[in-house]
Amino acid sequence: MKHAILILALLASLVGGVGQTKADLFVNPPETYWSSVWQTPAPYQRNIDWDFSVNPVGGPSPNGTPGAVYEGTLDPALKSSDSVAFTGAVQYYSTVTTNGYTYTDAIGIVNTGTTTLTGTAVFFLDDTTSAGVKHIWVEDTGVDWGNNPATSSIVAPLGYTASGLMNFTSEQISSSPPLYLEDFGFVVNPNPPWEEFVLTFSVAPGGADLFTSLHIATECVPEPSTFTVAAVACLMGLGYAWRRRKAKATA
């Protein structure tokens, strides 16, 4: 009987591992690409991966946001408070054709009309109350047709300062259909009780801006020394947002 229990436990761990192996697989992990700042190893404190195989809008829910893979060490306690919401013209596309290419499982705006379309995709992430500084690493894949790059930003409660670092990587990973991968980081000081990752869209007629995946990891670490803060500040953007892809694909 003891052997049977051990076998069942092993099978359960293997099955659990199969369902949880995706989220920590950043193409460009923060501990490598942001090694001067990032301190915790995979699977990180929060580690959430959306491939948009289902519409991510929803939550709070005991299972987290629809379609997300959670693997962070704090995710089991925090994912039930997460949510995703769209505003304006942003929508989920199970399949959509634009500029002669078909994309599946994507969020964003494809503008076939005659006026500019706008909207947001808001990813609410809950936090612990740990003291320190929050680091946020974001990796996305997508495409921008017609020079309509979305703006990426972190929104935190009043009294918390969020700064965005310019992207670390930006590379084409597929030509048919065209897709691009990007990595970038944010710092929030001090660690907030929650943060929102917000994509803000403004797409001109005939344009399109789509995301086919979004992967976010976070960590809260002790506040660095004054010297380190000053050094990092030299590399920081002044605002909450930076322009995502330039015109990587043109109509």
User: Got a strand count?
Assistant: 14
The overall number of domains is 1
* Overall spatial form: globular
The low-confidence parts are 1-23, 225-244
Strand content: 35-45%
H and E string = HHEEHEEEEEEEEEEEHE
Instruction: Give me the Rg, rounded.
Output: 19 Å
Helix content: 10-25%
Question: Major sheet: size, sense and barrel closure?
Answer: 9 strands, antiparallel
What is the number of helical segments per DSSP (H or I, 4+ residues)?
4
Structural class by SSE content: mainly beta
**N-to-C terminal Cα separation, in Å?**
65 Å
User: Which whole number gives the mean pLDDT?
Assistant: 85
In short:
14% of the residues lie in helices and 44% in strands. It has 251 residues and is mainly beta. Mean pLDDT is 85; it is low at 1-23 and 225-244.
